[in-house]
Specification:
single chain; mainly alpha; Arc Repressor Mutant, subunit A; 0% strand
Length: 114
C-alpha cells in the first residue's frame, strides 16, 4: 500500500498543478498531511464518499497523464542518466555503468516515441 501512495505522491508532485484546486487540496491532505478520509471529510465539510471519489478521480487523472505523456518516467530516466555520468567521472573504465546508461537512453527513446 505504501508504494502505491508514494507513487501517487510522486505523480501528484509532478502533475498536481493540472488538477482542480479542490482535488489539489484533498490530495495534499491525503498525501502530505496523512489524514484519513474521515478527517479530510470533516475538515472540508464534504462526505467521506465525496472525498474518496475526488481522490480516486485525481488518481485516475494523474495516472492517465503519465501514461499519455510519460514525462515523470522521462524525468526519472534523466536523473539516473545524470547519476551515471557522475559515476563515470569517478571511474571512466566502468563498462557496467556504460551499459546501464545505454539502457536508460533506450528507455527514454521509447518514451519519446510513444
Amino acid at each position: 500500500m505504501m508504494d502505491k501512495k508514494i507513487d501517487l505522491g510522486n505523480l501528484f508532485a509532478f502533475y498536481g498543478s493540472l488538477l482542480t484546486r479542490h482535488q489539489q487540496n484533498l490530495m495534499k491532505a491525503y498525501l502530505y498531511e496523512d489524514h484519513s478520509l474521515k478527517e479530510i471529510s470533516e475538515n472540508h465539510r464534504i462526505s467521506r464518499q465525496g472525498v474518496h471519489d475526488s481522490i480516486r478521480r485525481a488518481r485516475t487523472t494523474l495516472t492517465d497523464l503519465e501514461s499519455k505523456l510519460g514525462l515523470y518516467a522521462l524525468e526519472e530516466s534523466l536523473t539516473r542518466l545524470r547519476e551515471g555520468f557522475e559515476r563515470l567521472k569517478e571511474d571512466p573504465s566502468d563498462s557496467t555503468q556504460l551499459e546501464i546508461m545505454a539502457r536508460e537512453i533506450l528507455a527514454m527513446e521509447k518514451i519519446l516515441e510513444a
